[in-house]
Write a structure and sequence with these properties.
Elements: H1 2-18, H2 25-31, H3 33-49, H4 53-67, E1 70-71, E2 76-77, E3 82-83, E4 90-91, E5 96-97, E6 102-103, E7 108-110, E8 122-123, E9 128-129, E10 134-136, E11 140-141, E12 146-147, E13 152-153, E14 161-165, E15 168-172, H5 180-184
Parallel strand pairs: 1-4, 2-5, 3-6, 4-7, 5-8, 6-9, 7-10, 8-11, 9-12, 10-13, 12-14
Antiparallel strand pairs: 14-15
Helix pairs in contact: 3-4
């Protein structure tokens, strides 16, 4: 039980660190649907891994209805994962999300095939994905990368990449480069 509370405190601290509008832990805990979706996912993922798949899917659908965020209970989510705003976020069954990852609203971690097996992306530690971006297929986005708003990513990207465009092209992150504008500024929208 202590471990669960430690994770909740860690999630609240991560949200406060990443969202300049966050005022208090209480506000975050009660009013941030991205955190509610992540907390629900943990319970549904636990059920999924214990073969209570119908209950896990039913719970994830209820969470989707309440938050506007769909995380399949089979997806693997790391620590300190934060979804800012969140409406319209979709994370597929075989997606893997590392630690300290942040998604903005409208992001899809989706598939490109109906074949069985790994069909959704892997986001390594520290990846940030801008509003409306689509990351599709069994690809890997390397640690520390930034995906720009409305980018469509269908190919692997090495660590510390910046991905923008349709289709997205990866380039190395420049030393000291501030990529926050890629994530939210209208001039980067496609």
């Amino acid at each position: 039980m202590a471990i669960a509370w430690d994770r909740v405190r860690e999630d609240l601290a991560a949200a406060k660190l990443r969202d300049p509008a966050a005022r208090s832990g209480l506000e975050i805990a009660l009013l941030y649907p991205g955190l509610h979706a992540v907390w629900s996912h943990r319970a549904m993922h636990w059920l999924w891994n214990r073969r209570a798949r119908f209950l896990a899917r039913a719970g994830s659908q209820l969470t989707r209805w309440l938050t506007g965020i769909e995380i399949h209970p089979g997806a693997t989510i790391g620590r300190r994962f934060f979804i800012d705003h969140g409406m319209g976020v979709v994370i597929g069954e075989t997606a893997e999300v590392g630690d300290d990852v942040m998604l903005y609203h409208g992001v899809t971690l989706g598939g490109r095939t109906r074949d069985a097996g790994k069909r959704h992306p892997t986001l390594e530690d520290g990846v940030v994905v801008g509003s409306g971006a689509k990351i599709l297929g069994p690809i890997t986005i390397g640690a520390g990368s930034a995906v720009g708003a409305n980018a469509v990513v269908t190919r692997d990207a090495p660590p510390d990449s910046v991905l923008v465009g349709v289709p997205a092209k990866a380039r190395p992150r420049r030393a000291g480069e501030d990529t926050r504008a890629l994530l939210t500024a209208p001039e980067y929208y496609i």
